[in-house]
């Protein structure tokens, strides 16, 4: 590894340290390759020449930091992303929920909200929305506001409709939104049981007694230690028997808490928190 | 091609540290499967380098690509997993609908950030992040494709001291990607498919 490369890596680490100390957002335990890529992207987009110039700018210019924050938190998602996953939720998880009087779902790292509305639609179509509460959290206020508004670009609706059908949707997807100019506005009846709030998986604590946690394509950005801490947080936030849903390339298999979860659908990365494990019982 | 050197290898030699090159990344798009298969079939089961295949494909695709490559390869072929350690003698295939990146500790990481060059996985993204980690130990290969993905990444590989190989445009099912790579990256080799596999074998024995 040559020296310039090494110095650059140190400078990137210093930027993450600066962001944490100044603004409280902790990216220090994120997987480095992707973070560096995004910092470099912001560097080429701005008029700054060096990484240390960028550090000075972000410490003294809140607006610049806000735009950098949007770069650092990936916010690309779609409704019914991985249709086979949502099909499995519909066919395997929802029937379990039907045995319960009330359902609590947590979308951790909900971004601009596409997956929240997907879940809301699934619950509604199974007559369970009225007895459900969906917690939608993200660390980024800008995307959280987007999620809250429930307004999406109309041109995306074509793809979302295809996903919806592949995920086993039988209704007319267009009934769930109103088209207005270039926007699709999600139906208010889907929003009323969603609670939006700011929550940071790296620095904030437990959400109690969830029946299902969806956190898809968030953990891929974390290093192994941070992943483990978040798995612990999820374990403590789920009731025994509650479901944990990860992205298609994420797994709990290699974490310290794998024994506390069982596979529901390995390929779709749906797990279930087992009851009190035998080894933890005091006899 | 001098194969004797390779067949005489003892188990002790099967350690990547002794080799100048450590990782080969093959980027392909339109017509890619047919181009990659003969390259992989030219490599032995105990190939001392790691091979990473990045091919543009539909986001909801099944494991057809992995199975097809496994059928034509003596090396073990698998889809790359998040945080997986990159090992010698294995062909890793980039999963659909994710960008693939390499961490400093030689493990894979992934990202769902937007498409780059209309592609996810994008060859540029893998090349760039791998060039940073492996420097002169990296070999980048650009094969057939109908876009420009990979050309900037191949340039990064060259700048970091690595080796660049491009399929002869005239022999490519789609010539755009090799042409773009040649224009931007000044590759070390421009070869038809049947000569790329043997070249990779030769690179294996370079210390």
- Going by helix content, strand content and strand pairing, the class of chain A is alpha/beta
Helices and strands of chain B, in order, run as: HEHEHEEEEHEHEHEH
Shape of chain B: globular
Helix content of chain B: 25-40%
Alpha plus pi helix count of chain B: 7
Mean pLDDT of chain B: 91
CATH class of chain B: Alpha Beta
CATH superfamily of chain B, called what?
Methylesterase CheB, C-terminal domain
CATH fold-type name of chain B: Rossmann fold
The end-to-end distance of chain A, rounded to whole angstroms, is 55 Å
CATH superfamily of the largest domain in chain A: Vaccinia Virus protein VP39
What is the radius of gyration of chain B computed over CA atoms, rounded to a whole number of angstroms? 15 Å
What can be said about the biggest beta sheet of chain B? Answer: 7 strands, parallel
Major protein interface: A-B, 29 and 25 residues
**Helix residue percentage of chain A:** 40-55%
* Largest sheet report of chain A: 7 strands, mixed
Number of strands of chain B: 9
- Sheet with the most strands: spatial strand order of chain B: 3-4-2-1-7-8-9
**SSE pattern of chain A:** HHHHHEHEHEHEEHEEHEEE
What do the pLDDT scores of chain A average to? 92
Describe the structure in your own words:
The complex is a heterodimer of chains A (283) and B (207). Chain A has helices spanning 3-23, 32-45, 51-60, 62-72, 83-97, 114-125, 141-149, 157-166, 188-191, 224-237; strands at 103-108, 132-138, 151-153, 177-180, 183-186, 194-198, 210-215, 238-246, 261-265, 270-273. With 283 residues, chain A is α/β, with parallel strands linked by helices. Chain A folds into two domains: 3-72, no CATH class; 83-279, Rossmann fold (3-Layer(aba) Sandwich), CATH 3.40.50.150. In chain A, helix 1 packs parallel to helix 3, helix 3 crosses helix 4 (62-72) and helix 5 crosses helix 6. The longest helix of chain A has 21 residues, at 3-23. Mean pLDDT of chain A is 92; it is low at 277-283. Chain B has one domain (26-204): Rossmann fold (3-Layer(aba) Sandwich), CATH 3.40.50.180. Chain B has seven helices and nine strands, in the order H-E-H-E-H-E-E-E-E-H-E-H-E-H-E-H. Chain B is globular, with a radius of gyration of 15 Å.
């Amino acid at each position: 590894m040559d020296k310039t490369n090494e110095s650059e890596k140190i400078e990137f680490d210093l930027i993450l340290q600066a962001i944490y100390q100044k603004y409280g957002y902790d990216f220090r335990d994120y997987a480095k390759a992707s973070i560096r890529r995004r910092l470099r992207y912001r560097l080429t987009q701005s008029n700054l020449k060096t990484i240390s110039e960028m550090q000075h700018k972000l410490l003294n210019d809140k607006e610049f930091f806000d735009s950098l924050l949007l770069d650092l938190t990936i916010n690309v998602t779609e409704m019914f992303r991985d249709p086979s996953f949502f099909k499995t939720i519909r066919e395997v998880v929802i029937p379990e929920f039907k045995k319960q009087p009330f359902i609590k779902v947590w979308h951790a790292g909900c971004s601009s909200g596409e997956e929240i509305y997907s879940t809301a639609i699934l619950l509604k179509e199974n007559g369970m929305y009225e007895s459900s509460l969906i917690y939608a959290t993200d660390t980024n206020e800008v995307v959280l506001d987007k999620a809250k508004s429930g307004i999406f670009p109309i041109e995306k609706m074509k793809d979302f409709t295809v996903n919806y059908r592949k995920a086993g949707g039988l209704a007319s997807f267009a009934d769930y939104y109103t088209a207005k100019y270039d926007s699709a506005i999600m139906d208010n009846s889907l929003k009323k049981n969603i609670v939006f709030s700011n929550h940071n998986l790296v620095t904030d604590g437990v959400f109690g007694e969830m029946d299902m946690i969806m956190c898809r394509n968030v953990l891929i950005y974390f290093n192994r230690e941070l992943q483990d801490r978040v798995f612990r947080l999820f374990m403590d936030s789920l009731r025994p028997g509650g479901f944990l849903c990860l992205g298609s390339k994420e797994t709990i298999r290699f974490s310290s808490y794998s024994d506390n979860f069982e596979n529901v659908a390995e390929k779709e990365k749906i797990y279930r928190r087992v009851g009190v494990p035998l080894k933890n019982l005091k006899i | 091609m001098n194969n004797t050197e390779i067949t005489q290898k003892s188990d002790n030699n099967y350690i990547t540290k002794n080799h100048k090159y450590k990782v080969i990344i093959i980027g392909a798009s339109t017509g890619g499967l047919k181009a990659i298969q003969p390259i992989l079939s030219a490599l032995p089961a105990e190939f001392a380098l790691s091979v990473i295949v990045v091919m543009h494909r539909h986001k909801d695709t099944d494991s057809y690509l992995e199975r097809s490559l496994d059928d034509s390869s003596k090396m073990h072929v698998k889809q790359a997993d998040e945080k997986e350690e990159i090992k010698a003698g294995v062909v890793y295939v980039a999963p659909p609908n994710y960008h693939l990146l390499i961490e400093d500790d030689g493990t894979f990481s992934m990202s769902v950030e937007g498409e780059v060059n209309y592609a996810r996985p994008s060859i540029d993204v893998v090349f760039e992040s791998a060039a940073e980690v492996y420097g002169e130990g990296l070999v980048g290969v650009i094969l057939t494709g109908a876009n420009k993905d990979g050309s900037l990444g191949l340039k990064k590989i060259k700048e970091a001291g690595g080796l660049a190989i491009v399929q002869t445009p005239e022999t490519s099912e789609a010539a755009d990607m090799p042409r773009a790579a040649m224009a931007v990256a000044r590759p070390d080799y421009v070869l038809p498919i049947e000569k790329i596999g043997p070249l990779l074998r030769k690179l294996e024995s370079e210390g």
